[in-house]
């Protein structure tokens, strides 16, 4: 079993998790109670963003990382959505640009001012309308600037070119709600998991499905590309309702390379992969622990390392990009853990214990930096390029000089592949039909009550008229 320690030579065998002290946590945050299976948290080297509980629309906080401690209840929010916010993601190349999606069917791009918010932000720099139902996922392209993917409950994935503010491609191969999206290293392939229990590898520019796995024994929930190894890892549930992980060859999804049961708990397993150290982290929603493994190129492929334990359950986890880590402390990964019951965001650093305080080149290889490798037009024309790498020794504090310029455009019908996305509504689910039926029944009852009241009023007027006619004055 994976939880049994395997004693072998590995520089990451003794990696441990270190929780930040209370004064370096973020306290007093009304974390959203939404049950949607997302992290509700996004972090980069400058800001921490958390989706919050709010009435009359959706909102999220954006807090500068150095502003730790207790957050005031009236702290400014980003609150322009008309529905609950379901996902937020920072632009990997412009640190003050964040994308959000919501139940109001929109995707919005926000520009956070230098130093954070001073007042509530209600105006987005770009509002993107193309989905006919709520939007549950957003993902930035890993190597191309201003290319954004969004997945909605209309079973479509839209590819947005933010230079023009329009959807340029539509992936329409799914038959149910899309649960997860993951890119390979250069962004030429997109892996998705879907509520129809299928794992797909898609060529995003054409929308062509290259590989498809119908997972009968392993119901997939989440998927992640394992860097440039041409492998995928999925988390899901076995036929006995135990939590399970599976490793796949991206070029042959007929059978998983390995399947391994984790435990019998019910919470969703979130996978996180660090391509620089080849380490996989598994964190369960509602759990307090984080398991971590080392991925190898040969069998058994997956080697258990250790487990970080905590009594506080996590609702979601944000992950710091590599260039935001503390290399002087040999930190190789950092989580930001959402603890709903306490209203607390708790940083957890994964540290390789080393005696020397000098830069450790063996655990910090060249890593994807903050410069895009492609423009939107280059990527859309078919060019693929690996990410531009940077050294954490010299340039890990260097910020990108790219500035986001929102296009000026009018709202209109959104036509992609000859289909107006705002008009093309998919078949409704059973729950939606039931809700519509009950709403219509309520409306019918209300109209009947109004008619009955009008009938009573008509009879009263008729009686008054009859009395007037029969009165002695009229005779």
From TrEMBL:
The keyword Coiled coil applies. Keywords: Actin-binding, Coiled coil, Repeat, WD repeat. Transmembrane segments: none annotated. The keyword Coiled coil applies. GO terms for molecular function: actin filament binding. Residues 5-69 form the DUF1899 domain. PROSITE patterns: WD_REPEATS_1, WD_REPEATS_2, WD_REPEATS_REGION. Residues 444-471 form a coiled coil. WD repeats lie at residues 78-120, 128-170, 171-212. PANTHER family: CORONIN, CORONIN-2B. Belongs to the WD repeat coronin family. This is Coronin. The gene is Coro2b.
